[in-house]
UniProtKB/TrEMBL annotation:
Residue ranges annotated for the DAHP synthetase I/KDSA domain, each copy included: 20-253
Protein name, entry field: 3-deoxy-D-arabinoheptulosonate-7-phosphate synthase
UniProt keyword annotations, A-Z: Transferase
Classification via Pfam families: DAHP_synth_1
Coiled-coil parts of chain: none
Signal peptide residues on this chain, from the entry's feature table: none
One Gene Ontology MF term: transferase activity
Protein's GO biological process: aromatic amino acid family biosynthetic process
Organism: Desulforamulus putei DSM 12395
Amino acid sequence: LVSRETQAEDTVVQVGVAAFGGGNFSVIAGPCAVENREELIELALQLKACGVQMLRGGVFKPRTSPYSFQGLGKEGLQFLAEAGAAAELPVVTEVLDVRDLDLVLQYADMIQIGSRNMQNFGLLREVGRVKHPVLLKRGLSATLEEWLLAAEYIVAEGNRQVVLCERGIRTFETATRNTLDISAIPLVKQLSHLPVVADPSHATGRRELVPPVARAAVMAGADGLMIEVHPAPERALSDGAQSLRPHQLEQFMRGLPALLQVR
Ligand code: PEP
Ligand code: MN
């Protein structure tokens, strides 16, 4: 079902003011994790002002250590929804566990399935049965075929609103957090009609690499970007090293229209 052979035209996924695919390009930005209400509202307004189309923020965080900050849960969902409403931006957040799905559906406009859950087949089936669009991140070590078959689980249940997200894969290289598989962007678009966005934040793990890698993804044909932004990355509770400061995102956004023009 996700193959180009069954559908030649690009799938367009519309989420409020954001749209992906079929020539539509949108930027999703926000903190790795929702941390506090006031800062998130202020950040959402700044993001809206610089041309972002969707707000992100994790409230259920898939942390390597069980002792690291795990997210604010339900309270975080309320802050995220409030910030999205204040800035008139749709919101996306990750669901880690099927038991939280009903709750997340009440607050989020789009459901994120993170890398670590790309092959959580029970969770994929459940999000396949809801009406919300789904952002499906590529697994840490998933092949393109495994990634597309994970999308197939969702679409096979009836939910055709799936956006794929290339967020880097594990390689032998340790200088960056992951390695962005740039060729995956045009190749997945050749194999599938689903939109593909790139996440240069998790792909690199390093703030200074985010703008150049984001530009490369745009030129490779991405239908959007997901970028982590924090008002004060040095005190972020997760992923501070890869989070842009708001003025850095603003600068990146200023250069984006010219890139989209020439590609
Ligand atoms: C995230 O987007 O917050 C996240 C945890 O990403 P990934 O699943 O790609 O590691
Ligand atoms: Mn993160």
